[in-house]
Specification:
Blueprint lengths: L1 H4 L1 H20 L6 E12 L19 E11 L10 E7 L5 E9 L8 E3 L2 E3 L10 E10 L6 E6 L3 E4 L2 H35 L4 H42 L5
Parallel strand pairs: 1-9
Antiparallel strand pairs: 1-2, 2-7, 3-6, 3-8, 4-7, 5-6
Length: 248
């Protein structure tokens, strides 16, 4: 187990961990881009839609009620300004009526979308880096429709992206940094242990043995965690890279 005591091992793995953590944390911010995610769920089937107030949502006989949630996020590194925007709209072709239930954001400006028939426009006026808006609405239709999202912003790449997956990416980056910290603690404990082991004081000698055991445990946990988490990071990064390759 002498190789675990080598400070060069800990330093090397620590540097690799920090670089991987920073890369994985900031990976979504590689280009000026807008990411969006659309989730739909069936709320009420046709036979139960009579509980809906017709003044809120008009439901034709035989139609179901669906809930749609749209999340738009500035995942790039350039603020999206009003002058960059040409159009932002969401159209539900084949739907019957729309009711907006909420429009929230993680910054001061609250979105004020406009509803015209089955089209929701003016989704947002600006979107700074790492800011997002979330629209939640109900719509009635004979069956679930395919939403048509139109975001026309000069110089920005628009892509569909799993917002939850992005959060997991950052959690992995944070985990790498935490494990790196454990590795540094292990190195410090082992170095301190060497001084205690050279002491003639029985109490210090016992303490040194305990710390030596803890240092070995820390080193084993640190090395094993780094190998496993780094493997997961690389697999997820490769999967994300393949998923955004253009179709031939």
């Amino acid at each position: 187990m002498n190789w675990l005591r080598s400070p060069y091992l800990g330093h090397g793995i620590g540097v690799v961990a920090i670089l991987l953590a920073l890369f994985f944390y900031f990976r979504p911010f590689d280009n000026p881009q807008i990411s969006y995610d659309i989730q739909q769920t069936l709320v009420l089937e046709a036979e139960h839609t009579q509980v809906i107030d017709p003044l809120v949502l008009s439901v034709n006989p035989g139609s179901d009620v669906y809930r749609l949630e749209l999340t738009v996020w500035n995942s790039g590194k350039r603020d999206l300004r009003p002058e960059d925007l040409k159009q932002t709209s969401l159209e539900l072709v084949g739907g019957e009526s729309i009711y907006l239930t909420s429009a929230i954001s993680n910054f001061a400006t609250v979105p004020k979308p406009l509803i015209e028939g089955m089209r929701v426009s003016n989704l947002f006026e600006r979107l700074n880096v790492d800011h997002s808006i979330r629209l939640s609405l109900l719509y009635s239709a004979p069956s679930q429709v395919t939403p048509n999202l139109n975001i026309d912003a000069a110089g920005f790449l628009i892509r569909q992206f799993d917002i939850v997956d992005t959060k997991e990416n950052r959690d992995y980056g944070s985990s790498l940094l935490l494990i790196c910290g454990l590795g540094i603690v292990a190195i410090l404990v082992i170095r301190f242990t060497k001084r205690l082991m050279r002491s003639q004081n029985p109490l210090f000698l016992k303490t040194g043995k305990v710390l030596n055991l803890l240092g070995i445990v820390f080193s084993v946990v640190f090395t094993t965690s780094m190998v496993i988490l780094t493997f997961v990071v690389l697999i997820r990064s490769l999967g994300s890279f393949v998923s955004v390759l253009p179709e031939m």
